[in-house]
Amino acid sequence: MKNPYERLANAINNHTLTTLGIIVTVFVLALFGLTMVTMETGDDTYIDKNTPRGALLAHYKDTYGSDAIMLIYEADSVRSPDALRYIDHLQEDLRNERYVDSVSGVVDLLKQANDGTLPSSKAEIDAIIGETPPEMVERMLPSNMMTISVISLEPGVSKQIQEQVLGNIGSIIGVSEPPPGLSVTVSGTPAFSKEMGEAMGAEMGTLILAAMILMTIAVMLLFSHVRYRLLPIGVVTVGLILTFGLMGLFGIPVSMVVIAAFPVLIGVGIDYAIQFQARFDEETRRSTLPEAVRTTVVHAGPSILIAMTATALGFVAMFFTPVPMIADFGKVCAIGVASCYLAAFIIVPVFGILTNYRPKKDTDLSNPAPESEQSFIERYEHLIGKMAYTIAKHPLPVLLIFGMVAVGGYYLDERVPISADEKTFVPDDMPALENMGKITRTMGATSTIPVVVTGDNVLFPETLAWIDRFGTYELEHNDKMTGVTSIATLIRDYNGGVLPATKGEVDEVVARLPEATQKRYLNGNMEAVLEFSTVSMEMDTQKSFIEGIRSDIAWSELPAGVTVQITGTGEMFTAIMDEISESKMFMTLLGFAFILAFLLLVYRRVGAASPLIPIAFVVGWCGAIMYLLGLDYTPLTAVLGSMSIGVASEYTIVIMERCEEELAKGVGYLDAIQHGVQKIGMAITVSGVATISGFAALTVSSFNIISNFGVVTVLTVGFSLVGAIIALPAVLSLMYRYAGSSRAPLPTGAGVTG
To answer: Of all residues in the chain, what percent carry a pLDDT higher than 70?
Structure first.
């Protein structure tokens, strides 16, 4: 009975046009799915809403408010009557905008101090500002040349609505008529997220184009010995479109980390096209076209499928991380490598039939040309074959040296710092980032640390007293804190500076609070929020700061039935630091486990684990490189371990498969290793260089998180080639020697030369 590969080979040979029609149909469906791909930024890419932490953060933002939009006004003097009148009129227009909850600025302070009207002269303005407490003025009027309006949106508005409001604000500003010399800039977290999304879209196109150009150059230079050498570029393009289509159909969004997946896919995916075409070209040199199709599909198909599956399993390990963007990166890469494999597996032989493929020149592989007449390709193949033979004869020194370097790398890896600050991931010259920095420098930190308090009734005097007492304690004992606001502080302010002693008095004061103010800090009578204002802090400092608050909560004597939880964006990013630290090693070990189980299942012998030994070396070497280059672990570089396993496994498995194929012909294991490495080594090298070219595109990214990842992945692929071509022959030699090979090696120097 014919196996599936033989049936597929017959279908390609006998029903080529039908097979082509199926390819075109799938391609059209992929184009439809491509239109459904979305771009995503913000909290949802960092934290899963289905986790307790994610659910709490989502609840907090939906209930108590969205991130504020800031308007930055700059002029020679923003205190001038003309400038302030313009700001006042603009704020009034913005208050009428849908989804806007409130708009505040320095004009509101001036009007409040002037019986509800805006002062008409510069002298009156200066007098009122001079009499107003400085702490009330400085946040809205940090200098004579700059002032800020804060636009608070209704609680729970979506990212789409935020972008809609931003567009409307831009339109309103565009038709307004500011005084000469006055500029208005839209800033704040929503504006930052919107601009980052736009930058990500442009970046994705740039990286894909750069990867394609670099790989085209690499393939043109290194794959010149075959006809139609640019065929792999076309194949990987089809695979990439299939990937985009499946992303759209499965609802996988493009995030800051997922962007990096596409050059990775281009680099990894082209391997399959190169290896299929290299094997197909090899077979056409010694057999008819239909037989070449059959041999390529039947022999190369399963071996490359095993390698592809192992690669995909390295990415599948990423599914189990708690960070959504890392999981999405793994999903896209797993889908992508499968798509690229299928595209190469089908398109290469179909293309060969349709074009009546013939090799560039007839070469008798059993009678190679004399060394003096050999091409560079032939000399390279001969060289790596001899090197593999020599290493296989003396495996222990190679394994000892490589192993020692890997152990050192694992040691250094534990000392690589972790970074989870989103603002360090984006381009330094991004206008939105510069504007956010301008606000921070002039107003101080614009973020807060929210603490959610829940209980049977948070308006009980005992609970309010605890909220007030805890907030005061933290403010007095933490120099990073600049203020605290809660329902307790509001009630105290509206009650002459003291908290009411009875529930009835509390209810009376709460009834006098403005509805908008209540909604900002109180959700019914069972939940309230404290918000701690802080100075600007580095992520490590903020992590310690939050842990200090959490420790104080644990030691505090909470009222009966009351629970307290810290949330907010700052808490989320500090938690991600821990999740990256824990998940990077977990994903690496899980990747090893998945691939080991798969290889044992496929080969059903212990020796099947051989390809994982060079991979273990590669992972250790990558850790050393991270440390030596001074790079941080980020949500993207955290995938390095499991990705390295996936990428490197392809090369090691394909070489082992070819060595096994040669061993089955009855030669000694030393010559089997030489045959295998010599025949597949060039294709592996071309694949590796092409992959490096694809990954190299990442290094030109303006996003720091992507460019740093690119540097490391380029080195990783280089290490993977070294591990496959140098380390694996040593491992296979020991396996064949001590794990069951009954064949004796041929005499030294008796290895093949072709």
So the answer is: 92
Q: Are the C-beta atoms of 280 and 348 separated by less than 8 Å?
A: yes
Contact between residue 318 and residue 264 where contact means Cβ atoms under 8 Å apart: no
Q: Buried (b) or exposed (e) across 660-689, using 16+ Cβ within 10 A? A: bbbbeeebbbbbbbbbbbbbbbbbbbbbbb
- Provide the angle, in degrees to the nearest 10, between the axes of the packed helices 640-663 and 669-696: 150
How far from chain centre, in Å, is Cα 5?
Answer: 36
Residue 650 above 90 pLDDT?
no
Backbone angles phi, psi at 155, to 5 degrees: -60, 140
Q: Give the whole-angstrom CA distance, residue 130 versus residue 113.
A: 11
102 strand-pairing partners: 152
Tokens 């597949």 -> residue: 680
466 in helix, strand or coil?
helix
d(CA 139, CA 148): 8
Structure tokens at 483: 């203020």
As a whole number of Å, the end-to-end CA separation of the chain is 34
Confidence of residue 559 (pLDDT cuts 50, 70, 90): confident
Residue bearing tokens 């008529």: 177
Q: How far is CA 350 from CA 10, 15, 19, 394, 734, in A?
A: 11, 10, 8, 43, 40
Q: Are the C-beta atoms of residues 669 and 736 closer than 8 Å to each other?
A: yes
pLDDT given at position 243: 93
Q: What are phi and psi for residue 340, nearest 5 degrees? A: -65, -35
Give the tens place of pLDDT for each residue, 114-128. Answer: 878 888 888 888 888
The residue behind tokens 């009222």 is 559
Q: Distance (Å, rounded) from C-alpha 571 to C-alpha 448?
A: 10
> What pLDDT does residue 747 have?
35
Confidence of residue 406 (pLDDT cuts 50, 70, 90): very high
Contact 539, 555 (CB under 8 A): no
279, 300 Cβ separation under 8 angstroms:
yes
Please state which of the ranges 532-546, 564-578, 604-618 shows the lowest mean pLDDT: 532-546
Give the mean model confidence (pLDDT) for residues 635-652: 84
Find out whether 238 and 334 touch, Cβ atoms under 8 Å: no
Which residues are paired to 453 by β-bridges? 528, 564
Higher-scoring residue by pLDDT: 567, 132 = 567
For residue 682, give the nearest of 609, 754, 610, 599 by alpha carbon: 754
Is 265 in contact with 332 (CB distance < 8 Å)?
yes
Mean pLDDT of the region 283-292: 88
Which is more confidently placed, 538 or 233?
233
Which single residue is written with the structure tokens 């090369």?
651
- 3-state SS class at 183: strand
CA atoms within 13 A on the CB side of 577: 22
Q: Which residues pair with 302 in a beta bridge?
A: none
Domains of the chain (ranges; CATH) run: 4-41+223-423+574-738 (1.20.1640.10), 67-194 (3.30.70), 431-573 (no CATH)
In sequence order, what are the residues at sequence separation of 6 or more whose Cβ sits closer than 8 angstroms to the Cβ of residue 477?
Answer: none
Q: What is the mean pLDDT of residues 688-708?
A: 83
Other residues' Cβ atoms within 10 Å of the Cβ of residue 230: 12
Q: Taking Cα atoms as reference points, which of 257, 258, 256, 237 lies closest to residue 248?
A: 258
pTM equals 0.77
Token pair 């003025």: residue: 137
Residues 560/439, Cβ–Cβ less than 8 Å: no
Distances (CA, A) of 57 to 303, 450, 519, 524, 557: 47, 10, 17, 18, 25
**CB 513 within 8 Å of CB 489:** no
Q: Are the beta carbons of 166 and 190 closer than 8 angstroms?
A: yes
531-551 average pLDDT score: 83
Write out the DSSP string of 644-696: HHHHHHHHHHHHHHHHHHHHTTT--HHHHHHHHHHHHHHHHHHHHHHHHHHHH
Residue 614 CB: number of other CB atoms within 10 A?
A: 29
* 432 residue type, one letter: A
